[in-house]
Amino acid sequence: MLKKLVLQLMFMLALGVFAGSLCLFGSLLVSAQPAGPGGMPGINGERWPARLDELMTSLKLSSQQATSTQNILDSERQSMRALDESIRPQRDAIRQATRKKLAATLTPEQLARYDEWREANRPPHPQDEPAGNRPAPKQNTRPQ
User: Fold this and answer.
1) Which residue segment(s) compose the domain that 96 sits in?
2) Which of 41, 96, 97, 123 matches a 20 to 30 Å C-alpha distance to 108?
3) Residues 88, 96 contacting (CB under 8 angstroms)
4) Does any domain span residue 100?
């Protein structure tokens, strides 16, 4: 019975180490990608045309297929941006409610530090200021 329990614990530990390694590897991959003008790698940034070219080449498309595929994917990007814009007010309301709750919990100094941390780690949005006017998000920053 004890041997079975030890084996189960060892399996769970190994599984946890494996899952943690996957998370770390994934975060390293994402942070290693250069951000474009929108600050986000491959989404609104300068990597999009290069990634699209890579896709077109790897699919070995005819010129007609390439044009059609590019139009379809550009349309998808526009639709996704429109969707993001449509839910932005709801997202902002949730953030405001969260800040109000934090204001009731944190000291004014802690709240100010939280606000600084939040702004530094906020994902950029295509409708925000041009990327040149806004600093890039900091990596792995936590409030202390």
Assistant:
1) 90-122
2) 123
3) no
4) yes
Report d(CA 84, CA 71) in Å as an integer: 20
Question: Which residues contact residue 59 at a Cβ distance below 8 angstroms, ignoring those fewer than 6 apart?
Answer: 65, 69
User: For 120-129, what is each residue's pLDDT tens digit?
Assistant: 888 766 555 4
Tokens of 49: 């045309």
**Structural domain count, the chain:** 1
Residue 117 structure tokens:
């941390």
Q: For 78-103, how does the pLDDT look when each residue is reduced to its tens digit (9 = 90+)?
A: 999 999 999 999 999 999 999 999 99
Within 8 A by CB and 6+ apart from 69, the residues are: 55, 56, 59, 61
Nearest partner of 127 among 74, 73, 99, 89, judged by Cα: 89
Q: Is residue 97 in a domain?
A: yes
- Give the HSE-up count for residue 91: Cα atoms under 13 Å, Cβ half-sphere: 9
First to last CA, the chain: 44
User: Residues near 142 by Cβ (< 8 Å), separated by ≥ 6?
Assistant: 117
The tokens for 13 are 């530990």
